[in-house]
Amino acid sequence: MGEEILINFTPMETRVAVIENGMPQEIYVERTKRRGILGNIYIGRVVRVLPGMQAAFVDIGLERAAFIHVDEVVSQQLTQEERASLSIAQVLREGQSLTVQVTKDPIGSKGARLTTHLSLPSRYIVLMPEAGHIGVSQRIEDPEERDRLKSLLTSLVSTPETSEANSGFGYILRTVAEGVSDQELAADLKFLHRLWDNVQTRIQGAKAPATVYEDLPLNMRALRDMTHSEVERIRIDSKETYQRAISFARSLVPEIEEKLEYYPGERPIFDLFSVEEEMQRALGRKIELKSGGYLIFDQTEAMTTIDINTGAFVGHRNLEETIFKTNLEAATAIGRQLRLRNLGGIIIIDFIDMEDPEHQRQVHRTLQRVLEKDHAKCKVTGVSELGLVEMTRKRTRESLEQVLCETCNQCHGRGTIRTPETVCYEIFREILRQHRAYDTDSYLVIAARTVVEYLMEDASDHVAELEAFIGKTIRFQSDNFYNPEHFDVVLR
Question: Can you point out the beta strands (E) in 225-330?
Fold first, then answer.
């Protein structure tokens, strides 16, 4: 079974699930009110220069100032020695306007990370206005294909008609460019240069702080970035979003148009392949393994730790066999959970101690093999003296937990609960399920006070839309004995 992409769209949020071999592997959520800013380009104003950190804070119009390191300011054409000798105070001053791009969304208490080395992605090519070279994605491993693509793009940017206009630009051929024709690359190149001309025009007329370019919303980024030859179909549960996807595909990614499908099914699209269930499991600390063992995930601001336990699994021969099989299963499960939870940064894995060096090597190889499928860049070290496996996974966006949950004020920050907004959307989905399954005159929602207040104030317009859609009245009742995540939908 190949891959599928499911897109669940509502006016409040967009959710995308990547399905491989019938199982959810990646889940992305983007709230309309809190869209990510990764890839956006701004005219910012330097508000503070920190020579001791070789960095500066830049106001780009957000609640928190963004952060930029000296390496992201100085020219990429300089040698390593020349870059190391430059101080941030030599290249930036307070009050200075600066064109910057976001390389990492604000996460937790940390502001966005910035660079002045701009890049614009399209389907097959990333344009870098000041890089001056052509590169090929490392995921394209065939040497002949790498040479073909590089030669093809070089010839496209070096024709007499385009060489002057393309002078000084750099390009990276993306993984999905593998096997594409010169006509497809030429169309992509033309699109990127039109886009860059538009960005330049907006930069010239902008006053800091200002937004001059915004990346695509999640549903369109999924079509541009997540679709490759192994994706068999893309199902979308919104007719309007489906029609926009068709138009987007025809103009930018025509080869995926035949894979697009409108999903009108009565069963919610995220109930397919148990995506909703997997999302709930991915918000928990404990993941059960089929063998009876289990994993414990603890996510902190500094790092994520993963502990493996044998649990009820006792094996059939001896303790060493039990430990080895549990660790093998855990390595596979960890690779999948890292993608599902979108965990990034430093990750410490505490495998159960193994005495046999060959067992250690096999578990380590298994972990590296499952991480090869990960779109985020991962680096795994060997086993440390303490028996821990240390790894890093590139973090550019908030984790699933950070998007869907907030710090619990009832446990004083020791854990997290789902936000009233998240519970509100769960209530809407439950009402739709009930509406499809039963005939009733009205609905009564019983929930915690914070959830009911959100439904009656912030989400009142969406409640009205839902009532009009199902043709039934929805009433709300708060109950002080309900915890913030618990609710009941009563048929009246």
Answer: 231-236, 260-262, 286-288, 294-299, 303-309
Contacts of 332 (CB under 8 A, 6+ apart): 366, 370
Q: What is the DSSP letter of 403?
A: H
Using CA atoms, how far residue 153 sits from 15, 54, 132, 141, 181, in Å, is 35, 37, 13, 18, 10
Output the CA angle 365-368-369, nearest 5 degrees: 85
The domain limits of the chain are: 41-117, 118-207, 283-393, 419-491
Closest CA to 293 of 332, 338, 267: 332
Can you tell me whether residue 464 is helix, strand or coil? Answer: helix
**Tokens, residue 479:** 């109950």
- The residues, ordered by sequence, that sit 6+ positions from 300 with a Cβ below 8 Å of its Cβ are none
Task: Convert 39-76 to b/e letters by CB count within 10 Å (16 or more is b).
Answer: bbbbbbbbeebeeeebbbbbbbebeebbbbbbebbbee
Query: What is the CATH number that goes with domain 419-491?
Result: 3.40.1260.20
CATH label, 118-207, candidates 3.30.230.10, 3.30.70.890, 2.40.110.10, 3.40.1390.20: 3.30.230.10
Euclidean distance between CA atoms 255 and 134, whole angstroms: 24
Task: Give the pTM.
Answer: 0.81
Burial 277-306 (b: 16+ CB within 10 A, else e): ebbebbbeeebebebbbbbebebeeeebbb
Structure tokens at 330: 């855990």
pLDDT band at 412 (very low <50, low <70, confident <90, very high): low
Tens-digit pLDDT profile for residues 120-140: 999 899 999 988 789 999 888
Q: How many CB atoms lie within 10 A of CB 469?
A: 11
What are the Cα distances from residue 463, in Å, to 431, 432, 454? 11, 12, 11
- Tell me how long the chain is: 492
Q: Are 153 and 186 in contact (CB under 8 A)?
A: no
CATH number of the 41-117 domain: 2.40.50.140
